[in-house]
Amino acid sequence: MIARAAFAVAFALACAQAQSAVIAQVISPVSVVIQDGATRRVAMLPGKPVYYCGLDAFVDWASPLIGQPVRSSRDAGITVSIDGRDVALDDLFIDRGWLQPPVLDEGAQVALAERRGGWACSRAVVPFELLHTNVDPKILAGIALNESNYRGRAWPWTLNVAGQGYFFKSREEAYKAIESLLARDRCDFDVGLMQVNWCYHGKRFASAWAALAPATNVAAAEAILTENFARTDSVAKAVAYYHSANPTPGRAYLARFAQHLSMIEAGL
């Protein structure tokens, strides 16, 4: 925000007499050339480029922005009009999956978990490398592939209701489904990337909406795994117990996890 505001002030002062400033070139997700009359300046956006699909993929996506008018404000930074509303340029890049902000807020988490833009080409473990706190991200990724696997990747808007899996297009759709279940006093469902069971662990979340947030969902899973490990002193049992302490389903679950972990370590 400080970097955004600092550039916005300088940009506004430089363009005070201008009729219109436009995007002349998009160099990368963190550097954009702004043209004001005969003057060109490079706007540096805070964060890290998401290059898993390569720079060319980003440049192709960004090409419609060339020539688009931009505005500046202290709060929003450099903005461009998208569908009739002003959107901060860095927020646009984050939302579309081409920029990783300094702090991975919920908007950035959604882009990451939905594998938008450059995240689409990242390995299965990458979201968990960014979201984890105290559990090996490969273990989290392996469990997530057991739990919410959709086309080879963990999907954040997944529910399992009484053994039946449902994949929703958006967080909003998944949330509506949870609200409908709760309105009928049901708790026999699992939520999100890590499929946290609501009957047993719903109390770990501030709300059903919060439970769907990728980082919050992963944090709950980490807490459960940590508790399982403390109780069993075994990583294998901690993983098996994540699904069931009953030996038979636990062993089958652990076998699937081992397969996924092997694929992850091979570069999935």
UniProtKB/TrEMBL annotation:
Keyword RNA-binding listed? The answer is no
Q: Where is the signal peptide?
A: 1-20
User: From which organism does this entry originate?
Assistant: Burkholderia vietnamiensis (strain G4 / LMG 22486) (Burkholderia cepacia (strain R1808))
Q: Which UniProt keywords apply?
A: Plasmid, Signal
Report the residue ranges that make up the Transglycosylase SLT domain in this protein. Answer: 133-244
What is a single Pfam family found in this protein's UniProt entry? SLT
Q: Which residues form a coiled coil?
A: none
Output the InterPro entries linked to this UniProt entry: Lysozyme-like_dom_sf, Transglycosylase_SLT_dom_1
- What protein name applies here? Lytic transglycosylase, catalytic
